[in-house]
């Protein structure tokens, strides 16, 4: 069929939706690397004009990745809710943008339409939006999930406490965990990326974290971010698994590159549900994504990296996760070259995930060879707080010494809450108050319970203190 537009006397033609979406995307190095990006700013603008006129219903008829060859496409189309789609089915992509930004379109209206939206629809509309539009629309939507803490309530900003260590030293992980807890971090999850990605090591880490949690009655959940098949094996061995983690992508081939498919994710989800470890809810999955994953696996099918990323959210929403986050700058400058591209991608991912009904968080981060710095990450973090992100990831001192990249610090999340008036998850906030760690205005202070907490962390790590 093709799509065309005449702009300033020049005619532009795009062969299919795949090409149209790619050419309409904001500039990013990954699409340029794949040969998908617009050849000029003029062509990019022309593609956006043409995209604005495409009916949303067209995305149900023209699959970007063939239905017969891809289980993610089949998941998207087979689970599409026509009744929910009815509210927006008459709209074009441009009309959908206008609908999202209307004052009359509130979070309830967007949530009602969400099961009828496909990833390609939300990726398409994001390409027509300025950064402020992405913030304005996303902040309307609240996606609330529960396990031992409640994540995603309006006026709240949770954090993942990420206490990684290059040798998985239990004392080092315990020290980083203590650092985060004393700075009010960890209400979304205490999540460790293991340096040694094997079942026995994962069990050791889980038992230490669970012992610490139980000793101090911390209303949160722990997670060792190992491969899903390792987590299944850990559950079979009786390990205290709260959340099942897995990185996912937007095509079947890219997920095979991660060593997973929908069947193994279903198996893990059912196993975690059967443990019934959640006290206030049963959202027990944790997914990570990131623009560029499908391209790096040579599994993008000619689809631009932001649209493929949005397709990963269809995988995630099939399992009612507690948490989903995009590691927005982690894959590197080959995919998001500089701070401008990282900022845009973070806002896009958060917006698309929220519209698809996901509890979205972001790892506001960059690698040391990217054209970005801590000031750029401050800017993105403030924008995401304004946009209503469910949670952000935080590490000691902004430097993940195991994964060797820069993220937010525990202090950064604390500062964001102070600046914006956002608060920790309610159960976690009550726990902090019970320890005497918050003053009358809910500001963090040196807690009377600090010594007891420190002693408990040291004991949980299985090592005696030095000196």
Automatic annotation (TrEMBL):
InterPro entries linked to this entry: Aldolase_TIM, EutB, EutB_dom_2_sf, EutB_N_sf
Instruction: From the UniProt record, report the name of the gene that encodes this protein.
Output: eutB
> What's the family?
Belongs to the EutB family.
Q: In which pathway does it act?
A: Amine and polyamine degradation; ethanolamine degradation
State which Enzyme Commission number(s) the record gives: 4.3.1.7
The entry's adenosylcob(III)alamin-binding residues are: 194, 246, 296, 402
Origin: domain of life: Bacteria
The protein's annotated catalytic reaction(s) are:
ethanolamine = acetaldehyde + NH4(+)
**Cofactor(s) needed:** adenosylcob(III)alamin
Q: What NCBIfam families does its record include? A: PRK15067.1
Q: What does this protein do?
A: Catalyzes the deamination of various vicinal amino-alcohols to oxo compounds. Allows this organism to utilize ethanolamine as the sole source of nitrogen and carbon in the presence of vitamin B12.
Which keywords fit this entry according to its UniProt record?
Answer: Bacterial microcompartment, Cobalamin, Cobalt, Lyase
Whom does it interact with, and what assembly results?
The basic unit is a heterodimer which dimerizes to form tetramers. The heterotetramers trimerize; 6 large subunits form a core ring with 6 small subunits projecting outwards.
**What does the entry's cofactor note say about binding and number?**
Binds between the large and small subunits.
Spell out the protein name for this chain.
Ethanolamine ammonia-lyase large subunit
What are the leading ranks of the lineage?
A: Bacteria, Pseudomonadati, Pseudomonadota, Alphaproteobacteria, Acetobacterales
